[in-house]
UniProtKB/TrEMBL annotation:
Protein name per the record: Spore coat protein
Gene Ontology MF annotations: dTDP-4-dehydrorhamnose 3,5-epimerase activity
SUPFAM superfamilies assigned: RmlC-like cupins
Site (Participates in a stacking interaction with the thymidine ring of dTDP-4-oxo-6-deoxyglucose): 146
Length: 174
């Protein structure tokens, strides 16, 4: 008799994730240039396959250790996150009525050792969780400026029963 449960593969032998991805979500690992003085990574190199819409606005935000921000959703603009420091577990939930991936929950670990940039499509709910012991800092390059008189953001509580994922199951330290 064997105890335990067989491990399930999460990536192919080529490193491609096996989990279902949400249509329109883009991720990117940027090259890090390292030498004896420190490191450099390029955030924005002009319009290309990843940056296919102009940069019109940018702001930095942070998530304190063992805290979360979200659920939030935008009705008009994309969010384009770049992580600068720390590590974030980003949850994405597709609740777009006409999306072929409606109902899919996608998890992306953002860190300087892997996925550094994520584009979140219009209409996709997102929640950022800092599982680490240091503050996580990110820059967002949304495709619209912030409208103080009419913010483009809908909010849900992190534990809202409408969300098809139990965040607590992924947060053993909380």
């Amino acid at each position: 008799m064997t105890l335990g449960q067989r491990d399930q593969a999460t990536v192919t032998s080529a490193g491609v994730a096996l989990a279902k991805a949400i249509v329109g979500v883009k991720t990117r690992s940027t090259p890090n240039h390292v030498d004896h003085r420190g490191t450099v990574f390029e955030i924005y190199e002009g319009l290309n396959d990843y940056w296919d819409e102009p940069v019109v606005y940018a702001y930095q935000f942070s998530v304190h250790p063992h805290q979360m921000k979200g659920w939030g959703l935008h009705e008009r603009k994309l969010d384009r996150y770049t992580i600068i420091a720390g590590e974030i577990l980003l949850f994405l939930w597709d609740d777009r009525p006409d999306s072929p991936t409606r109902g899919v929950v996608q998890k992306v670990v953002m860190s300087d050792r892997g996925t550094r940039q994520v584009t979140i499509p219009v209409g996709v709910w997102h929640l950022s969780v800092n599982l680490g012991d240091t503050e996580a800092r990110l820059i967002n390059f949304p495709t619209e400026v912030y409208h103080h008189d009419s913010p483009d953001r809908l909010l849900l509580g992190w534990d809202d029963p409408a969300v098809p994922v139990d965040i607590r199951a992924h947060l053993p330290r909380f």
